[in-house]
Design the sequence.
């Protein structure tokens, strides 16, 4: 089978499906996904929360641009994709400086004293809390509804998603890229590299200089709710020093050691020692022991050296578009980055500030 499109998107995570949906308003789009279903890797393993003050200045601008779409997701869902949650940072004496740094330039965050922090999360050890802050505007994201809404938009615009289609070879002739997969060959003048942890590998297949992407494993477990506590209304609560975080999840607690272990791209699984060390750090911050793990998993968060995504056409090949390096911000920035990718591919001016667009440009990462 051989198929021709205007744009081929490599990767069926939230980045690829979102961008494909937006691009399909102007072009014939095909999305190629390696797995049997979209959203299998990082998207399906996300902590699923919108945090306005998460990441560097560029990412915070993207977060802000995405919020209106989450609240009024026209064409994606009939109602808001957000549910109130809140985010509580706590700091020991060791991590007060890290909390102060998070608060610099923050919007909608306020400091709390130890008593107020414990009132929000009663299992916290009050004596360990030197400082605290809360972002009331942090909200849970319905990731599945977001992903499936984008997929529905893509198909409604006559776009196509091809599963079980890992890209084995990429070539370019007469201005047209051809991709070989087990589902056949696919050709288009533009390909969008939204392959997540595999983005640098895709670049190499295409003969494009990789940008220095590092996949990093992030693990998590589900714990039963502490005896005698209804966790439903608790905020996500986290160590300001990024040693762990915990979030209510269907009446239980999802706890992560906030690990960032460099990895080769693969179907990630948790390391027992990393989990044990992270859960120990969590236990030092709370008054209840960890007695049972109900489930564990891991995913890959992929970063470029400056921890900012790359979005834009490659400077070293026509028609090769980067949409990669979203790290732990992929879901919450997807409304903004999908719109930016569609604008750039269509030759339109983005509604984002030009300083943000330039901060995302792939050429900043090209080694001379």
Sequence:
């Amino acid at each position: 089978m051989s198929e021709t499109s205007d744009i081929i998107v490599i990767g069926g995570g939230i980045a690829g499906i979102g961008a494909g949906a937006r691009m399909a308003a102007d072009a014939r789009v095909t999305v190629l996904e390696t797995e049997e279903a979209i959203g299998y890797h990082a998207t399906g393993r996300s902590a699923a929360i919108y945090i306005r003050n998460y990441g560097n200045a560029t990412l915070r601008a993207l977060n802000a641009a995405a919020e209106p779409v989450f609240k009024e997701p026209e064409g994606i869902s009939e109602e808001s994709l957000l549910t109130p949650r809140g985010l509580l940072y706590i700091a020991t004496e060791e991590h007060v400086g890290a909390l102060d740094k998070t608060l610099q330039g923050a919007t909608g965050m306020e400091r709390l004293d130890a008593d107020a922090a414990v009132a929000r999360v009663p299992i916290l050890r009050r004596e360990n809390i030197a400082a605290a802050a809360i972002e009331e505007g942090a909200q849970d994201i319905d990731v599945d509804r977001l992903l499936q809404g984008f997929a529905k938009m893509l198909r409604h615009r006559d776009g196509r998603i091809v599963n079980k289609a890992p890209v084995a070879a990429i070539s370019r002739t007469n201005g047209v890229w051809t991709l070989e997969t087990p589902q056949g060959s696919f050709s288009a003048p533009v390909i969008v590299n939204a392959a997540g942890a595999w983005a640098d590998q895709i670049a190499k297949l295409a003969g494009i200089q990789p940008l220095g992407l590092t996949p990093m494993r992030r693990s998590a477990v589900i714990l039963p709710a502490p005896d005698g506590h209804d966790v439903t209304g608790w905020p996500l609560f986290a160590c300001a020093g990024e040693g762990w975080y915990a979030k209510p999840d269907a009446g239980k607690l999802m706890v992560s050691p906030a690990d960032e272990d460099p990895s080769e791209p693969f179907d990630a699984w948790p390391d027992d020692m990393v989990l044990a060390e992270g859960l120990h750090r969590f236990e030092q911050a709370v008054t209840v022991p960890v007695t049972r793990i109900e489930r564990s998993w891991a995913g890959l968060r992929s970063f470029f050296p400056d921890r900012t995504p790359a979005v834009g056409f490659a400077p070293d090949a026509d028609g090769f578009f980067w949409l990669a390096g979203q790290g732990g911000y992929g879901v919450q920035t997807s409304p903004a980055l999908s719109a930016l990718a569609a604008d750039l591919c269509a030759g339109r001016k983005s509604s984002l500030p030009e300083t943000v667009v330039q901060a995302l440009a792939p050429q900043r990462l090209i080694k001379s």
Summary: The chain has a mean pLDDT of 96. The longest helix spans residues 330-346. The two ends are 40 Å apart (CA to CA).
